[in-house]
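Protein in question passed on here:
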Amino acid sequence: MNVWLLPLIAMAAVQAFVGLCLFAIPVIAPQAASDLGVDPGLLGLYTAVVFTAAIPASLGAGGLIARWGAIRTCQACLLAAAGAALLSASALPVAFLLGALALGFAFGPETPASTQLLSRLTPPEKRPLVFSLRQTGNQFGGMAAGFAVPLLVLSVGWQASLLVVAGATAVLALVLEPLARRHDGDDRAAPRPAGRGTLKRALDLVAGEPALRRLAMAVCAFSAMQLCLNGFLVSFAVTGLGWSLPLAGTALAVAQGAGLVGRVGWGLVATRWAPPRVILAGLGVAMSVAAALVAIASPGWPVPAFLAVCAAFGLSASGWNGLFVSEVARLAPPGRAGEATGGMLAIAYAGLVAGPALFSLLVAGGFGYSAGYLAAAAAALAGTAALVIPLPPAPTPDLATAAKDTPCA
């Protein structure tokens, strides 16, 4: 058996359960908002808090991995995510805020940790596919939230549903213990980044490489689009299209299922036929078109037609992540893949903060969900431009002037 296979499955599971703890919030939003006496659209600010906390957590991921090891870091992320679900289940506004902060500290290090582990165990030629497979965990988490959480909400209520999610997430943290003992020694044996300089080192690593900088600009916009898809689709279908909660959850599950297909499919395409950067640019255009179609949807649309748009949306807006991670691993210096991923994610999380916050403000301000999806489409097109617009050529030195200005020995 390939040495990377079991760690790949474990890392995908980590992402699935951390994602489930996040995706459960927009699914329970219609009922939870009623109990809390707030507009469902304002719960999008929950995700803004999550990814505000994730920014410093991702920047510090390199230090955590060096101190604990990649899998032990993932176990800590799972426990933080479970704690976030428990806090949110209390239905206290301050507990929701604390839960969002805890979930941010779970999201920040889990992708850098898995990148560090898998980049060490995976041959370079297999990385686009392996990282795409790992990123399918996000889709499994979203599909579980779309199919299972609405049924739990209808049967036991939204608070008990979050308790179930928290318990399952904590159990996975315990299941990973044998893998931690097997693989974490290599990470702890590596040189540790300096303590207080860890955050700056991660950002400097991204800022110092033009290809990483441009990739970060695109991923910032793509991340905002992905979260607007996942965070508001259920509420839009319920309040804007008049769908029932289970049917609206099905729309989210369809989008996540298509994203699952996309992550594996785009990984295969990148491994065999096209460079990841070219595919990422095409997906940027596709997600913008899909978001615009969601924006013009109305209650008169046939259910299959809207579900088809959701599938196209998920295929593009949720299908790019594995290619992004494989590109970071390719461009990062040897042994610093986790640190580079942390720096990139800090920039991506800025989009995850700004996107849902702007979307929520547009909804609360009376502009509606359509305006939010159109704004996300415009941002994704701008991110695509960062990938495809050629870099200006480096200035050619004037040899005559240089010779004139150079003192003779």
Notes: Residues 191-196, 394-409 have pLDDT under 50 and may be disordered. The domain at 1-180 is CATH 1.20.1250.20 (Growth Hormone; Chain: A;). The longest helix spans residues 5-36. The chain has two domains: 1-180, 195-389.
